[in-house]
Amino acid sequence: MRFLVAPTAYKGTLTPTEAAEAIARALPAGSYDLCPIADGGTGWLEVWQFHFPEAQAFTQTVQDALGRAREARWLLLPNGVAVLESAQVCGLHLLAPEERAPLEATSYGVGELIRAVAMHPAVQALWLGLGGVATTDGGLGALAALGFHPRDAEGELVAPNGAGLLRLHVIEPPLFDPLLNKPLLLCADVQNTLLDAARIYAPQKGATPEQVAQLEHGLQQLAAVAQRERGVDLLSTLGAGAAGGLAGGLHAYLDAPIVSGIMWLLRHIEWDARLQRVECLITGEGQVDAQTLMGKGVGVLIQQAVALGKSVIVLAGRVGAGGETLARLPRVQLLAVSALIPNLPPADALARAVAHASRSWYPS
User: Fold this and answer.
1) What is the assigned CATH class of domain 3-35+270-360?
2) How much is the pLDDT for 297?
């Protein structure tokens, strides 16, 4: 049996590449194709570097979600495309739980990164991975860093964060194109619409029910301004809710198209041919739940493999609400690694889970 090993990040424990290598340890030599994946969120940059090792890596000093200086990496592919990752700048994983500040967190650093990369003479286009961020500001911070001026009804500048959305009345454009006429592609980790950024994802970033309501109201305000100024309906735009609405704000004010991050990656790594050549897909992530089938990378891979009649092993760190839906798909085996094999380091637990599943492939 030949395997396609394609996990994404197990957030806080293993990167996509680390997870793929751990799984491979339990498989016979020469029986697998390593193919770590990311959907736009955490691990996006690492995965592109894995599949394109000739890419050049750069760093840029930017602000994190709380305005602190940090070094964010970006890649330059041989074709002149720059690959950026929003989670490198304002990722939720960069904050301690007690530091999470849903109303104050800003995407300003993402705008700083976009602006700096666009100025690089070798860059011809930018692909921004969106997901895994600590912010829910609708991209207001990023737009401010790119030279836009968000103001309230009295003409005063508003804070470039989630709280600032509540007072937003107008977004004045910059005098010059911050992208220098270079195309920007928004690679979203989910296909949710704008208000889902508050309703579904803000609680994961530490928002209380009251803060969720405030953020939802703020995003509605952003949508109204974008509709009036740009003629863009963010409330119905698929993917606009990715990265705390960062996708929506950049889409409306930079004319940047939103695509599925996982589908964009797959089309560049010969995924279809690689899946055709194997009998079994092994994938997984930190938590599998109802959101997995909402355009998330692992859900997309599972659906494609099932459609081709392949066997699928899903190694979930945890199985959350709605995750059992995956186990009802034909030829899909879902394993909750933390429950099946507790008290082991994550890499060892993954390898042991594969060995457990392999009993059905190689009976003694």
Assistant:
1) alpha beta
2) 87
